[in-house]
Write a structure and sequence with these properties.
The protein has 260 residues and is an alpha/beta fold. It contains 8 helices and 4 strands. The protein has helices at residues 3-22, 70-85, 108-120, 140-152, 158-170, 174-189, 208-224, 228-246; strands spanning 28-32, 49-54, 89-94, 123-129. Helix 2 (70-85) links the parallel strand 2 (49-54) and strand 3 (89-94).
């Protein structure tokens, strides 16, 4: 950190200039991540340098540039300063909670703002990191759909795209599932902390009571299913409600995660 980072960035520019002399078609990549995410104050990236900025430290719940979220104000400032000194930025965006893959999605209402902010700050591409084994994660299919649609057209509304998916994927069972996700959005919107993609249940306002409410709503959704395929999809999504109903018991007593 500090002076060492300056030398590293000078090295990146030095390598980029040398490579440009013989292979002007090649980009030199570097990470803005953890201790290196703060932009340098006294240099500009060479034209053939590509910076990958990771939003690991961002608040998962809120949009970027929101005055009520100090973490994301800081992230937005860094994005803006990187965009001022680099024309080619890849954003590493998180659509996952590494602490618990089975939790319901808590960042639907923030995706629209986040993607627009990245596009406005020289995004040439965005890497979306999701949960491992995403096929078996309750709402992974919905998140992939929403992110793909917003990445293609950032002017779309995230909630409207989510509702579009629910209708297409769950048929007549969509309404109770929408009600459950509305409860998730309500509770996470009022949560006390601004945690990142390693946040605990309490940081996001997720409770056992919400899980029990969700179980009943998913039962109602299953009763409305018109086909065996719709019922299977609803059963998969309901896993997050049963997981929530277990609360902290799910973690046992050995959990120990280090926040970077």
């Amino acid at each position: 950190r500090g002076l060492g980072d300056v030398y590293k960035r000078q090295l990146v520019n030095h390598v980029a200039r040398a490579v440009a002399d013989v292979r002007p078609d090649i980009k030199i990549g570097t990470l803005a991540y953890a201790v290196t995410r703060e932009p340098p104050k006294n240099m500009r990236a060479e034209p053939n340098v590509r910076v990958q900025y990771a939003t690991y430290h961002a608040c998962l719940r809120h949009g970027y540039g929101r005055p009520y979220c100090p973490k994301n104000l800081e992230v937005t400032r860094q994005m803006r300063e990187w965009a001022a000194i680099c024309d080619d930025i890849v954003y590493w965006h998180y659509m996952v909670n590494f602490r618990d893959y089975l939790l319901p999605p808590i960042n639907i209402e923030s995706l629209e703002s986040q993607i627009r902010a990245m596009r406005a700050n020289n995004a040439t591409s965005i890497f979306f990191q999701g949960p491992g084994g995403g096929r078996n994660v309750p709402f992974a299919d919905m998140m992939i759909y929403v992110l793909a649609r917003l990445a293609w057209n950032p002017e779309l509304n995230d909630t409207e795209v989510m509702n579009e998916f629910l209708e297409l994927h769950y048929g007549q069972g969509a309404e109770p599932i929408r009600d459950f996700l509305a409860l998730v959005a309500r509770d996470t919107r009022n949560a006390p902390l601004h945690d990142n993609c390693n946040g605990p249940l309490g940081a996001f306002g997720l409770t056992e009571e919400l899980g029990h409410q969700g179980i009943e709503l998913f039962k109602a959704a299953e009763q409305r299913a018109q086909t065996a395929e719709e019922k299977t999809r609803i059963e998969k999504a309901s896993i997050c409600a049963y997981r929530l109903a277990l609360g902290e018991v799910w973690y046992g007593h050995e959990l120990s995660l280090i926040h970077i």
